[in-house]
């Protein structure tokens, strides 16, 4: 089950209290102050782990509290810092403030970190307050409280190519043909209830990730069907494959409906590079296949059959040429970068 939304509460640890202490040694009857500072409270950190696939753990455990810092002690000993609490999240997690809706971080790179709640500073011991006029200060600071906030985590799957279309357009069949993914396939609508990812390998050096999304119906951007719940996963794709069943009563109407829903959900989504594909050409009469694209009102469409493999290789080569090359600067970034 793909869990792509979760609300959590995070509380960082309080800083340890400073210590009031004076030296008490033999032959030193009036030793000066030696109270140490308190330790820093532990922070709550979100860290991207590529082995985590969903936000299920965050939904099951929605309260996270880091450890406090230890108090300082005599002999100028600083208290131990509280241990940071690390929460593992999948790549593609968007972090928002649950109260204001402000986007705080977009975690996409393996190892990327975001400090969600910073631990409080430790209090100062009385040794810090010693001056020439006050050589025996009896003052120490308490530790500062750690930050607390409520967060909303939203997972947007990261894929190069998104397969989008109405129910029963053959998206799952195509994904199972071109990758090792095995989504459920059946001859009725909404067989796919959650996104599926598959790695498509053209050869030893060329590969990309494709995502099979649940079918879109009219009004999906308003919450009808499963569209609103999963359209967010298309936002990160770099190329869209708009699919329609070539044997349906009106492939042109199906494609027009898909385009309308994408544009209504996000104008940026509608501007993504896209290729139009008519599927299930094996169900058409041989003489009708050549003119299927023109009959559907999409002369640029590719006509394929995931069942027989007709046109599939050519489609994959075309998709590869449409994928923008990754930025070298992005590859050189430090994967263990802390965000705030």
Automatic annotation (TrEMBL):
Keyword Metal-binding: yes
Parts forming coiled coils: none
GO CC aspect terms: cytoplasm
Entry EC number(s): 3.6.5.-
GO terms (BP aspect): ribosome biogenesis
Gene3D superfamilies: GTP1/OBG domain (2.70.210.12), P-loop containing nucleotide triphosphate hydrolases (3.40.50.300)
SUPFAM superfamilies the UniProt entry points to: Obg GTP-binding protein N-terminal domain, P-loop containing nucleoside triphosphate hydrolases
UniProt-listed InterPro entries: G_OBG, GTP-bd, GTP-bd_Obg/CgtA, GTP1-OBG_CS, GTP1_OBG_dom, GTP1_OBG_dom_sf, OBG_GTPase, P-loop_NTPase
Gene this chain is encoded by: obgE
Limits of the OBG-type G domain: 159-324
Protein species of origin: Eiseniibacteriota bacterium
Lineage: Bacteria, Candidatus Eiseniibacteriota
Stated name of the protein: GTPase Obg
């Amino acid at each position: 089950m793909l869990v792509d939304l979760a609300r959590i509460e995070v509380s960082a640890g309080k800083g340890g209290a400073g210590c009031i202490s004076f030296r008490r040694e033999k032959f030193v009857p009036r030793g000066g102050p030696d109270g140490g500072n308190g330790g820093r409270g532990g922070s709550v950190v979100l860290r991207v782990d590529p082995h985590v696939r969903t936000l299920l753990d965050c939904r099951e455990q929605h309260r996270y509290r880091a450890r406090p810092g230890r108090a300082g002690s005599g002999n100028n000993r600083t208290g131990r810092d509280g241990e940071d609490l690390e929460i593992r999240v999948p790549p593609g997690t968007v972090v928002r403030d649950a109260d204001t809706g402000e986007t705080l971080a977009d975690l996409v790179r393996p190892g990327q970190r975001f400090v969600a709640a910073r631990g409080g500073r430790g209090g100062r011991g009385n040794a810090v307050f010693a001056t020439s006029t006050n050589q025996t200060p009896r003052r120490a600071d308490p530790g500062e409280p750690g930050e607390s906030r409520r967060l909303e985590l939203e997972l947007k799957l990261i894929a190069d190519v998104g397969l989008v279309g109405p129910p029963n357009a053959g998206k799952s069949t195509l994904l199972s043909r071109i990758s090792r993914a095995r989504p459920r396939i059946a001859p009725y609508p909404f067989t796919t209830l959650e996104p599926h990812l598959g790695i498509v390998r053209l050869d030893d050096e060329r590969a990309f990730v494709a995502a099979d999304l649940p079918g879109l119906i009219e009004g999906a951007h308003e919450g009808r069907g499963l569209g609103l719940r999963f359209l967010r996963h298309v936002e990160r794709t770099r190329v869209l494959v708009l699919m329609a069943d070539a044997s349906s009563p009106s492939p042109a109407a199906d494609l027009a409906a898909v385009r309308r829903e994408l544009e209504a959900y996000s104008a940026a989504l509608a501007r993504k590079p896209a290729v139009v594909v008519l599927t299930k050409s094996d169900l058409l009469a041989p003489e009708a296949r050549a003119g299927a694209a023109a009959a559907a009102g999409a002369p640029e469409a590719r006509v394929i059959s995931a069942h027989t493999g007709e046109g599939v290789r050519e489609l994959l080569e075309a998709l590869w040429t449409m994928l923008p090359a990754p930025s070298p600067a992005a590859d050189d970034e430090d994967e263990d970068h802390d965000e705030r």
